[in-house]
Amino acid sequence: MCSGGYAGTRIFKIIVIGDSNVGKTCLTIRFCGGTFPRQTEATIGVDFREKTVEIEGERIKVQVWDTAGQERFRKSMVEHYYRNVHGVVFVYDVTKMSSFVNLKTWIEECNEHAVSLTVPRVLVASGAQECVAGTGRSSTSIW
């Protein structure tokens, strides 16, 4: 597969899921763009970002799917989120206990869509309020 000018670039699809307003968008923008955004808007459906990385001399394109946390924006697209996924990132906000409790629902959804147990799953604890408040900072640190 040729992509971004690199023959044979492998593509890895990572989905980022969790409740609404837990910092998923800030996390994906930071990973793909290098900085936290000053403000974000609610994700409707899915927002898609890419970053090409080099690991041991091999170019790898990472596709990050930033999913909507609100059920009304998810219904029609959920099947596509999980199809051919290589990794799942679960995000919750340390300042919202409900987002931690709801992780069970997100894990169940993941399992219901037949994501293999061999697919890596990562849990990220975010301090989303800082990013949403527009300071350009976040206490989330992963990647």
Q: TL;DR of this structure?
A:
The chain is an alpha/beta fold and 143 residues long.
Key attributes of the depicted protein:
143 residues, alpha/beta, Rossmann fold, five-stranded mixed β-sheet, two-stranded antiparallel ribbon, 5 helices, disordered N terminus
Large-scale geometry: globular
What is the number of helical segments per DSSP (H or I, 4+ residues)? 5
For the residues shown, what is the average pLDDT? 76
Read across the widest sheet, the strand sequence of neighbours is 4-5-3-6-7
**Low-confidence runs:** 1-5, 131-143
Q: Predict the CATH topology.
A: Rossmann fold
* CATH-level-4 superfamily name: P-loop containing nucleotide triphosphate hydrolases
Q: Briefly note the structural class of the backbone.
A: alpha/beta
Radius of gyration: 15 Å
Could you spell the SSE succession in H and E letters?
EEEHEEHEHHEH
Number of domains: 1
- CATH class descriptor: Alpha Beta
Instruction: Assess the beta-strand content as a share of residues.
Output: 25-35%
- Which second-level CATH architecture applies? 3-Layer(aba) Sandwich
Helix content: 10-25%
Count the E strands. Answer: 7
Major sheet description: 5 strands, mixed
Query: How widely separated are the two ends?
Result: 26 Å
